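Sequence only, no structure available. Ideas?
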Amino acid sequence: MSPDERGTIIGSDGLARPPWAAVDAMLQEYYDTEWGMPVRDEQGMFERISLEAFQAGLSWATILRKRPAFRSAFHNFEPEAVAAFTDDDVERLMLDAGIVRNRMKIRAAITNANATIALRNEGGLVDFVWSFQPKVTPNPRTHAEVPTTSPESIALSKALRGKGFAFVGPTTMHALMEAVGIIDTHLVDSHRRGSSGVWT
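Reply:
I predicted one. Tokens follow.
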């Protein structure tokens, strides 16, 4: 049976987690304390969008290990600070071995910082992203049953691109919606299922 076809795994602490969060201590802590919990502040949402964009094509574990370096390099993802980055900052970041050195993704973070600031005139990034919350959430029993896109993530992707955002494809936005609690894709018998308070 492949990892995708398995349900939760009971850890040494007696708690049920999906395979991806059951072995690596860093991923387990992230799963137990952060993943799927509501993010309702602009800086937090901008950081999540930025890191999800950097994750595209890579593993989340890679991004999580580099997150402290990303926060340092991008001034804790404060939108005004990132929006003010110049070509010199891009070159500085391209030399920073602590982060993912991808010029297009670095420039996308700057683009998205400016788009985040512009969205304040329309109620702000957080309310905009949360407005795509669906009426129901998935109920996966195995990782194979967890969708990678949804009508809502496709709509959010299109809407964000319309507001000037980059690297916000439907799969990336679906991962964002999972990470910030907009949908609950914890496996149904995980100890974290329903912990966000958004879905009962």
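The chain has a mean pLDDT of 95.
Hope that gets you unstuck.
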